[in-house]
Amino acid sequence: MERDDLIEYSLDAHHSEEKGVEIRKKIYKVTILLTLVTIVEVVLGAVIKQDASIWPLVKWTFLALTILKAGYIVMVFMHLGDERKWLRYVILVPYFIFILYLIFIALWEATAIKSVLNFFS
Amino acid sequence: MAGHTAALDSKTLWGGKISPFSTSYGKLMMWFFLVSDALTFGGLLIAYGFTRHDCLEAWPIGEETFNSMPFLGHGYPLVYVALMTFILIISSVTMVLAVEAGHRMDRKGVTKWMIATIIGGFFFVGSQAWEWYHFIHGSEFGKIELADGSVAIVKGHFGEIKNFTVTEAGNHHKKGDIIKEDLMHTFQHAAAAGHITNGIITLHDGAKASITKEKDHELTLIVKKSGKVNKASKAKRRITGAKAEKLYYEALYSGEANRVIYGANLKQNEYGPQQYAQFFFFITGFHGFHVFSGVVINIIICLGVVAGTYHKRGHYEMVEKTGLYWHFVDLVWVFVFTFFYLL
Fold first, then answer.
1. Is the pLDDT of residue B268 over 90?
2. What does each of the 121 residues of chain A score in pLDDT, given as a tens digit?
3. What is the DSSP string of B102-118?
């Protein structure tokens, strides 16, 4: 049966020309930011060797910059920032709980295995 | 609003009138798919981290492994992959511009930006093919097992091979022949198979030839696995100058098979532990396949835009949904880039 009372949510995303100009401005800003972050990453990676004493700091900088880039892509390009609050939580919270747990358990186990391998080699 | 409330009896509420989070079904399902796909990639990258963490051998370093540029040769650490990343980011931007144009019902704008996105996607897939080719093909020096059992990777500029001069006739070549074709390929095959002894190469037909080769420049050995003499410790692992040259050619011209490894396959690779190449092929391959399918989906949706399907429908949500997938592909690359190339 064809229903005419269904809500067409897809139309909610429509916006005016003026709003479009504003949105595009934001997109260009994020583009410049992402490009700059990538350039900084590559320069750091090419200039600072992994033997250098400040390498651990560089490593954590890479991770922080990656999270920053990912955040901008998800929140601005994928419009998750504009969705309902609870949609955001339903997507992000289970993911982070699972992945953080997996990272923890994988690194913990890898450390244990490495100590065993070292013992026998 | 009051009228609205009155209509919300249990029949309509359970009849599917309202969608969760005020988001359309298709978009919600795309998000759930992306979460599951993100878990897959997360699992793969964590497996990579696991293997790298418990590996006793030295793991390859991005800037040492990926330092070539098309037409320019070696010595450009990470530049090419940075370019690839930039291409993917830009194609993500053109995609979001297409989505924005869709929200204004600007059909021409959507078409324009989607075509730009597709071109960006093709460029990325092509770059990845080049990257793979280079990874599989390997460097000119390869990875070498030195006389004392230590293993080292080699950096520097390989002096060009000019020719082989046949000194002892074989089935095909006569004494005094000068061979000028397919030199590098023949040389590497012979070196890996142990058919070069003291600068004399044994060719396929049994002929022996001397090698005329230009001098290498800035040959540097970086010891990755300690042997009896050469150690992989931070202070000692770099060997340069005449000593490096002597050690390298002593091993290369030893006449023993499998002392040198060129390039990468699933069994061995010149960059580091064998799991490294396996993870590289699997993760970048899986991502590359995502990009490829993304390009195909983009083309299909772009044809729909041109045909006016979505304009008639009154909204361009299909563009938004493919956009979500495309941005996700970019998102995954951000992480692959960090874990494979930077760290």
1. no
2. 566 667 788 888 888 888 999 999 999 999 999 999 999 998 888 888 887 889 899 999 999 999 999 999 999 999 998 888 999 999 999 999 999 999 999 999 999 999 999 998 7
3. HHTT-HHHHHHHHHHHH
Per CB-CB distance under 8 Å, the chain A contacts of B330 are 73, 77
* CB of A84 less than 8 A from some CB of B: yes
Q: Do B42 and A99 touch (CB under 8 A)?
A: yes
Distance from CA of B341 to the nearest CA of A (A): 8
Q: What is the pLDDT of residue B49?
A: 94
B23-138+275-342 fold: Four Helix Bundle (Hemerythrin (Met), subunit A) (1.20.120)
CA–CA min distance B31, chain A (Å):
8
**pLDDT above 70: residue B1:** no
* Res B72 pLDDT > 80: no
Contact at CB, B95 and A77, closer than 8 angstroms: yes
Query: Does residue B187 contact residue B178 with C-beta atoms inside 8 Å?
Result: no
Distance of CA A23 to the CA centre of its chain: 21
- Residue B257 confidence (pLDDT) above 90: no
- Residues 12-71, chain A, touching B (beta carbon < 8 A): 12-17, 20, 23-24, 27, 31, 34-35, 38-39, 41-42, 44-46, 49-51, 59, 62-63, 66, 69-70
- Inter-chain CB proximity B39 and A95 less than 8 Å: yes
| Residue type, position B114, single letter | M
Strands (E) in chain B, as ranges, are: 68-69, 73-74, 143-145, 151-157, 161-168, 178-179, 196-197, 200-202, 208-213, 217-225, 238-240, 260-261
3-state DSSP helix/strand/coil percent for chain B, to nearest 5?
55, 15, 30
- The segment(s) of chain B belonging to CATH 1.20.120.80 are 23-138+275-342
Instruction: Report which residue type is found at A39.
Output: I
The answer for B 53-92 residues in CB contact with A (under 8 A) is: 53-56, 61-63, 77-79, 82, 85-86, 89-90, 92
CA distance B181 to chain A (A): 36
- B5: its two tokens: 């409330």
